[in-house]
Amino acid sequence: MHGLVRRILPSLFALGLTCSGQQWEIGGAAGYGIYRNVAVTSGTLSGTAGFKHGMLFSAVAGHHPYNRLSGEFRYTFRDGDIKITSGSTKVGFRGDAHALHYDALLHAASKNSLIRPFFAFGGGMKVFRGNEPERAGQPLSQLAAFRETTEIKPMLSVGAGAAASFGSHMRLRVDARDYITPFPTKVIEPNPRARLNGALHDIVVLIGISGVF
Question: Nearest to residue 63, comparing CAs of 35, 26, 14?
Answer without folding.
Answer: 26
